[in-house]
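Quick one: examine this chain and its backbone structure tokens and tell me how the chain folds. Here goes:
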Amino acid sequence: MRHHTRSILVATLALALALPATLAPAQAQPETRPRTKLIGRAVLPAETFLPGPTSGTRIGSGPVNGVELPFTDRQPVQGVSALVDNRDGSYLAMSDNGFGSLTNSADYHLRVYTLRPNFRSRIGGTGDIVIEGFIELHDPDGHVPFAITNFFTDERILTGADFDIESMQRAPDGTLWFGDEFGPFLLHTDVDGRVLEPPIPLPDREDGGEIRSPQNPLNEEASAVRVMNAVRAHAQANGNDQAPVFSPWHVMLADAQTATAVPSRVAPPEGSGLVPASSELFDVAQLQAAGYPVVPYTVNDKPRMLELMELGVDGLISDRPDVLYEAVAEFDADGDGQPGDFLDDRGLIDPDLFDAQGHRGGRDLRPENTLPAMEVGLDNLMSTLETDNGVTADGVPVLDHDPLVQSDKCRRADGAPYTEADEVLVADLTLAELQSTYVCDGLLDGRTEQTNDRALSPVAAAYARSRELADPYVMPSLQQLFDFVAFYEGWYRFGPGRDQAGARGRWQNAQVARFNIETKINPRQALADRTTDPETFARAVAGVITGNELADRADIQSFDFRTLLAVQEEFPEIRTVYLFGDFPIYADPSIAGSDDGTNLQDEDGANTPWLAGLPWPYRVTTLDQEFRAQTSGGFEGMALSADGTRLLPLLEKPLTGDDPRTLRIHEFDIADRAYTGVDYRYVLDERGEAIGDFVLHGARHGLVIERDNTQGDLDGFKAIFEIRLGEPGEPVTKRLVADLLRIDDPNRLTGDGAPGDVGLGRSFAFPFVTIESLVVYNRRWVGVMNDNNFPFSVGRHVGSGRPDDSEFVVLRLDRRLTRDPRRSLLPETAEAVPWVRSDGEALPADQGVD
């Protein structure tokens, strides 16, 4: 059981219930705003923490509203978005998704706390809130069908990057139901927070699909951050705190550039079995906000390079290091009219500002993955040399893109014929056999600038002679690459090249140049035996890196995430780079251009084998699953029917295509696990921007919190409406029952607060941007609690700028709620609500505050 409890004295709730008064019609509109009375208040300070993993690492640098970050080995108890009354003086309080967004909440665990408020009232009470324990939502049985942050753990604790839970109800069987905004989904757990079944999506009756938000993890557009969260959590669990790098095919970036769409993605060849694919998948700003550098591949023309730099990428991988350096030198990052913002005062590219990578050294200028290709990358001052690796029969990593010694790239050194039919696996040859038998200086069609003229590669030629290699274009080992870069530095620093123009910049760049080393391994069933296994592959490459003490200068990248997880587990000092691609390649020989496929493609209808088990919704995009729900527009409120058989989740914002002032209440049958097709319409007040909570107190009557987006503004709009559900598809009737910015406090329960506090005194206000929790005690009394959006919201402490506390208030309405003739959940007497003193003695009804 995932309970965490501490023994704390149960505090007094010194309140009693008022007796009901006369009924008021639900649809009647009062002539004046009702005056609500404050009868109890308890406060949980903003900076309240319980033990847990370090959180808040992605909020930003420096203090936020005076709060130091991150929260080391702690989780803040904050963001209360739903309350369930335990009817014993305690409440289940559901925390929000963390720190406000998917991108900054992967280190925030989703928890439900047990709170016991000791309301300050006219007759006593300390006004504090005791935390008696909590549960964490977790999915050890793997019901959640998409990538979650703690995917690679046994317990699979859910975080605020997995779900944005905003509403909660307890069913008659004791299980908990949560309304989520990312899906929007319904999430079902047992009393200990264990997920019981897959999240339930919201059907779209108009087209037979689902209503999805832009954060829905069953679309490709919202999956990259989740996959990266999972691999980062795995790295951190193994002692690697370096953020993994996200490296996508550049045409898949969400840049609104339709010109980059590949025709065969938009219209796949007949017989491929693939649906059209959107190219607007990966949001650079979102990935960076989540903490991941974004370095796309492979970009070879200057206009596109400049376009992507304007988009804000952290680096680029290019076959044309000469063009990439020109683009970097021309780019005006800060818009002041002076280019070269990514260059230092020596004219070198600052890798902390931008990572310029020579793809396979510089494959459009020299035959790829050779020492001359690496030389041309260094000549053009690339901050990183990118290269592929294979592993030989004697376990040596070598620079090689293909599992076979390709006949279009390599020839036999002895002049004997070498054709496609003669090709052999790299894994079947030793390093000595490779380098004595083959020279890989083949020039490829379509690469008009590519040359293998040895005179243009003097350093590689000299290195080959010094190491008695047969040719500068033999397939080099990874060790030889490291040795060559050191040799290159010496050539221009002390050797024959020291007096050449640009020599100083070349050796200074080579001295700190980085390496991005790809493991070329294919996990597809028919191809997996062409290389060594992923763990052996990872050890071979990482062993050379660490053996040369280059862990701080070398990354390991791959399309096959199994090798990267192995690196994280055994070599946590090495940063990993995750390659993402969906090339127009089809593993069907009858289709022109068919090849091995790539890492986002599935295999025979099953999940892609490349992502180490992480699910990927292949080619499910907005082309066939549009986003009709708005961001942060999901199930903010959720009522439970009076008979406990149905949930009624209420969307916070209108659906695309609906009236912009109208929200939908959907009906869900708990026993059938299905939406009934019934919905109701909630029309926002002319000042309302969103709802905060929704509860029912009868068969057809309930309460809704409605608000604008202001905070600390006493002229804003924060209100509670009583509603009556009418005919399905029709607007509910509403009447205002509480203005949360105009509450009488005749007994001065709140005091004066700190200097500059807003809304305290005889006229009390709840001036928070989000007010999201509501309980109904009887026909006069309601409880309300704010979501403090810790540490961001400042609605109360405007003068000091300190973040809001979580305030729980009990209010007496100036007119009774409607008694539902069909079925009411409201008690008729004070004794029906078992509020108790600390000694367990029930308060007599005549001690109520009126």
